């Protein structure tokens, strides 16, 4: 299969840093991301409750998708019905960090994980629906309400989104859907490749240590105290060894 060509753009002001270079350099046998990240301003005012933007408004603000299989626009404004992702005509998707960023920061999850997870998710959706992204108002069946750490978790409760941002998977039910129960059969080779690649979407070692400290504060304090004693003993032993060696000379 020829790699899917994906375009990434930002929509509106993004008040935090995203490591787009990591996303551009991400090695995948399924897709390749265009090296240029375009930036677009939001010119229209919000038109839904809680300063959100309706699909009608976002549709007008999104750039057209030309020369790519699909486009993912990244924003920080609330979307219609407080969804974290909405699908638009012309194979365009908009994902937001609104109401999501705080959970990722608390769990020390890299922002790039969120984007990569959605790239894989919509790459499979694109293939499932015969090389197109179904628009938001279409009846679809590629998500499930139950949270399973799967690429296709609905995540109606956004606090549960974090589970599919650290070594996400494709659950058994979704594998069956991908195998031809929707529109287009996705080859097993592609499904297996995606399963292997998404294992690299994970927390780094520092984040794992930070998570352990937060969930085990007493044990962490004890281990720190114990490590201090051990280092002190090692330092004393090395000092005595060096003193003996010097005295012998």
Task: Please outline what is shown here.
The protein has helices at 20-25, 55-61, 101-106, 111-128, 172-181, 188-197, 205-215, 217-248, and strands at residues 4-11, 31-33, 38-40, 70-75, 85-88, 92-96.
What does this 3D model show about the protein?
This protein has 2 domains: 4-206, Collagenase (Catalytic Domain) (3-Layer(aba) Sandwich); 216-248. It is an alpha/beta fold. Helix content is 40%, strand content 12%.
Percent of residues in beta strands: 5-15%
Q: What is the CATH level 1 assignment of the largest domain?
A: Alpha Beta
What low-confidence regions span 5 or more consecutive residues with pLDDT below 50?
A: none
Q: Write the H/E string, N to C.
A: EHEEHEEEHHHHHH
Number of domains: 2
- Report the span from N to C terminus: 71 Å
The CATH topology annotation of the largest domain reads as Collagenase (Catalytic Domain)
| Helix content bin | 40-55%
Shape: elongated
Helix-and-strand structural type? alpha/beta
Profile the largest sheet.
6 strands, mixed
Number of beta strands: 6
The tally of helices reads: 8
CATH superfamily of the largest domain: Collagenase (Catalytic Domain)
What is the CA-atom radius of gyration, in angstroms? 23 Å
Mean pLDDT: 88
Q: Which second-level CATH architecture of the largest domain applies?
A: 3-Layer(aba) Sandwich
Structural key phrases:
249 residues, Collagenase (Catalytic Domain), 12% strand, 8 helices, six-stranded mixed β-sheet, 40% helix, alpha/beta
What topology does this entry show?
Blueprint: E1 4-11, H1 20-25, E2 31-33, E3 38-40, H2 55-61, E4 70-75, E5 85-88, E6 92-96, H3 101-106, H4 111-128, H5 172-181, H6 188-197, H7 205-215, H8 217-248
Parallel strand pairs: 1-2, 1-3, 1-4, 4-6
Antiparallel strand pairs: 5-6
